[in-house]
Structures are given as structure tokens and as C-alpha cells.
């Protein structure tokens, strides 16, 4: 949990810098608070629900690449995307 909190703080810091950079391309006029809130809400949701966050670093990718193909499949099918695939399957049954 601590690691996740630190990771998200880093992401927010980078996002704040990016939003400030956008203002430079708007003749220095700040972006409206409403748009900033929408951008932040979107990325908060994305970071919270990003199923591939566990594969974001080079070290994570290395671990994944060294696993047997069958284990990789189990990770994707039975852990990362299990609920999504179940919903998709149920959708097409009807």
C-alpha cells in the first residue's frame, strides 16, 4: 500500500507539471479549474484501475518475459482480466 501511495504521488506530480506546460501553449493563460478537475479525475481513475500497472517497469517486464507461456496466460486470464472476460462472455451469451 505504501508503495502504491508513493507511486501515485509521483504520477500526480508529473501530471501537475504537464498541466502547467499546457498553459504555456495557451499564451500563458491558465487552464480552467473545471478542465483541470476533469483531467485529474480521469487519471485518478486510470491509475487506480490500470490492470497493467504491475507490468510498467523494466524489471516487471523482465519477470513476466521469463515466465512460462502458460503461467503468463493464467496471470492475464485468472487474475488481471478475469472480471472483464467474465462480463464479456456473459454479454455475448445473451
| SS elements, strand count | 0
Q: Indicate how many domains the architecture comprises.
A: 2
Helix-strand makeup class: mainly alpha
Number of helices: 5
Largest sheet: none
Query: Low-confidence parts, pLDDT < 50 over ≥5 residues?
Result: 1-7
Radius of gyration: 18 Å
Could you tell me the mean pLDDT? 81
How far do the termini sit from each other? 39 Å
Helical fraction: over 70%
Strand and helix order? HHHHH
The coarse overall form would be elongated
Which strand-content bin applies to the residues?
A: under 5%
Written description of the protein model:
There is one protein chain. The protein has helices at 2-24, 33-49, 58-66, 69-80, 82-93. By secondary structure, the chain is mostly helical. It folds into two domains: 1-50, no CATH class; 54-94, no CATH class. The longest helix has 23 residues, at 2-24.
Properties at a glance:
94 residues; 0% strand; single chain; 2 domains; 78% helix; mainly alpha
Short description:
This protein is 78% helix and 0% strand. With 94 residues, the protein is mainly alpha-helical. The protein has 2 domains: 1-50, no CATH class; 54-94, no CATH class.
Topology summary:
Layout: H1 2-24, H2 33-49, H3 58-66, H4 69-80, H5 82-93
Amino acid at each position: 500500500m505504501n508503495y502504491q501511495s508513493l507511486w501515485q504521488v509521483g504520477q500526480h506530480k508529473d501530471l501537475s507539471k504537464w498541466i502547467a506546460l499546457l498553459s504555456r501553449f495557451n499564451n500563458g493563460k491558465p487552464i480552467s479549474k473545471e478542465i483541470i478537475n476533469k483531467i485529474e479525475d480521469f487519471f485518478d481513475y486510470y491509475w487506480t484501475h490500470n490492470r497493467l500497472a504491475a507490468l510498467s517497469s523494466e524489471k516487471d517486464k523482465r519477470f513476466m518475459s521469463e515466465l512460462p507461456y502458460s503461467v503468463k496466460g493464467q496471470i492475464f486470464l485468472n487474475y488481471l482480466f478475469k472480471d472483464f472476460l467474465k462480463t464479456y462472455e456473459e454479454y455475448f451469451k445473451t
